[in-house]
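TASK: fixed-backbone design
INPUT:
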């Protein structure tokens, strides 16, 4: 079980730190399928459920299982993902 997250205000820098955690090694401008799966696992979001699809939709991802840095930045800013960012980086 993960430790409880300390809630911190959303900042673009925190969102970028989180993006870098899951970005592809070969192309750091995108979270590819492997990084997306790891992100979902770390967030305790089962891949076989609808939550990954909803998350990708909220990020306005153009490709399934991929999130570009631009999509991530805009999506996180729109959602102000305070808890998600704090929880995953904790």
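OUTPUT:
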């Amino acid at each position: 079980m993960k430790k409880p997250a300390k809630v911190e205000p959303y900042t673009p820098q925190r969102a970028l730190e989180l993006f870098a955690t899951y970005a592809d090694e070969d192309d750091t401008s995108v979270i590819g399928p492997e990084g997306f799966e790891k992100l979902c696992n770390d967030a305790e979001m089962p891949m076989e459920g609808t939550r990954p699809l909803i998350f990708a939709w909220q990020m306005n991802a153009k490709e399934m299982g991929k999130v570009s840095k631009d999509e991530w930045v805009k999506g996180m800013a729109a959602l102000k993902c305070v808890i998600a960012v704090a929880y995953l980086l904790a």
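COMMENT: The chain has one domain: 12-89.
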